[in-house]
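Lecture 7 notes: from sequence to structure.

We start with a single chain of 203 residues. Read the sequence below before looking at the structure.
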Amino acid sequence: MTTMSRSLTILLAGVACCLPLLAGCGKSAPAQFYSLSTAAPQAATPPDGPCRAIGIGPVDFPAYLDRSQIITRTGENQMHLAEFHQWIESPRDGFQRALADNLPRLVCAKPLFTYPWPVGGHPDRQIVIQVARFDGTLGQEAVLRISWSVLDNDNNTLDWRSVEYREPAQGPDYAALAAAQSRLVEQFAKDVAASLGAGGNRK
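Now the structure, written as tokens:
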């Protein structure tokens, strides 16, 4: 075998050995998925107040949250989209689901609808929600800025409120931030229950 042939053989063998390493380097980290949790079930005591059909929605979310990536703030006017840390469902759907899970612990909602209503669904009280902000800063806090109205079955406004909630993140990672955002929904559910009570007795 000539010297050139041996050199070519060694070169090709070296390239073949490196291919698995190169393939490994091309793999990206697996994505992690998160959801909003709800408050732990309490003792089965019926909530105070009359039982009514409650409808949640429409729930309006800002366009910047209309994505699966978790949004965090890195500065006054700068945000980060986490490609490898994502919501398992759309933020709007997750928020509406978590609220619907929390609310029956606080008010007697029989039945409880989420928008759009099922065929034949006619809520006695409707909660119309506008979310202006629902994000946070890793290792610091989560923020929810929100407005909502309580309507009767004739679309009359019984109550309207606007609040900003802040909840510290009890850890430096995305799991801690998602947990803090879950607690924000729990806080909001308590205020919605109070709002239903404030306007609930009006005819």
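The mean pLDDT is 86. Keep this in mind for problem set 3.
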